[in-house]
Write a structure and sequence with these properties.
With about 325 residues, the chain is of the alpha/beta class. The chain contains eleven helices and 13 strands. It has one domain: NAD(P)-binding Rossmann-like Domain (Rossmann fold, 3-Layer(aba) Sandwich), CATH 3.40.50.720. Strand 1, helix 1 and strand 2 form a beta-alpha-beta unit. It is globular.
Length: about 325
């Protein structure tokens, strides 16, 4: 990566949906950006966007990490963890510690690390006690990265993301595809977060680093999924599916696992410490923004639009 007027260089491990939005913001401000992908077609897309691409996955580390990471000031980790933890940490933690220019590291985690709370509230000081494999993997990866903050003074920040949505990746898409069902599990609710707010919160943290800090990245409204689907149907002028009792629903294990955890996420810290004001405090404003932005999103990504709905997270 070459120097820019801003003198800032962002390197993204696991360049997916969220990293694409963050990188677009930084490129517009004159940053240099690099990112890793497992896919050669996406690699071409990154080049077209002015992003330096590198191939990387859990079985294939960076070929020349010290050269590829040289000059990086901001490091964003969005690689999906496995049972051993985060692949970027496993392969390149020691290399990252050798990059003196790093000012900020962000690890994108998940609110799944809190596990099931029977509908109760959690904040960043709540106990980490995941109740499924997905949450356990995230908790392990968090622990790995935070160990570098504690032991080596690497400026690591952890962002526990609620359900991510945005243009091309939201309830509007599943409703149009005829794949949405309104599952009713009484008392159950999810928090969500629009991808533009994730980018804004990360940027706010970069401007006000606090090494070792964790942040819940969630909207203001924990709501049942069936209310989200109803709103999406109404926005599109499509029939609202009937409510289906949870106990009667035939769901794949991965879908059912999302209903196993029930909690509400407090987001006070991003507001108090980062002075961040949510652009989309509820899914209602967020879905309308998605509807408004869909055409330009599809035009920018072209044939990669469907692929980019998958995240590096």
């Amino acid at each position: 990566m070459q120097d820019t007027a801003a003198g800032k260089k962002l390197f993204c491990f696991g360049y997916g949906y969220t990293c694409d939005v963050v990188a677009s913001t930084m490129l517009a401000e004159g940053w240099a950006v690099a990112g890793t992908t497992r896919d050669n077609e996406k690699r071409c897309y990154l080049k077209q966007q002015g992003i330096k691409p590198f191939l990387f996955d859990q079985d294939n580390p960076l070929e020349d990490p010290l050269t590829f990471l040289k000059g990086t000031t901001h490091l964003l980790i969005s690689t999906p963890p496995n049972d051993a933890g985060d692949p970027a940490y496993i392969h390149h933690a020691e290399d990252i510690l050798k990059i003196p220019s790093i000012e900020w590291v962000g690890y994108l985690s998940s609110t799944s690390v809190y596990g099931d709370r029977d509908g109760g509230w959690v904040d960043e000081d709540s106990e980490i006690r995941p109740s499924n494999r997905r949450g356990s993997r995230r908790a392990k990866a968090e622990e790995q990265w935070l160990s570098l903050a504690h032991d080596s003074n690497l400026p690591v920040h952890t962002f526990r993301l609620a359900g991510i949505y945005g243009p091309g990746r939201c309830a509007l898409d599943s409703v149009r595809a005829g794949m949405s069902r309104r599952i009713n599990k009484p008392g159950h609710a999810f928090n969500r977060i629009h991808v533009d707010d994730i980018a804004g919160i990360l940027k706010a943290s970069m401007s006000k680093p606090d090494a070792g800090r964790a942040y819940n990245v969630a909207d203001d409204l924990a709501a049942p999924s069936h209310e989200l689907i109803k709103t999406a149907c109404e926005m599109l002028g499509l029939p609202v599916p009937p409510l289906l009792p949870y106990d009667e629903a035939d769901m794949a294990p991965i879908a059912r696992s999302f209903y196993a955890d029930n909690k509400r996420i407090r987001n006070d810290r991003i507001k108090a410490e980062l002075s961040y004001v949510l652009k989309y405090p509820t899914y209602i404003e967020g879905l309308q923004a998605c509807l408004d932005a869909e055409e330009s999103y599809r035009a920018r990504l072209g044939p990669l639009a469907n692929q980019m709905t998958g995240d590096g997270e």
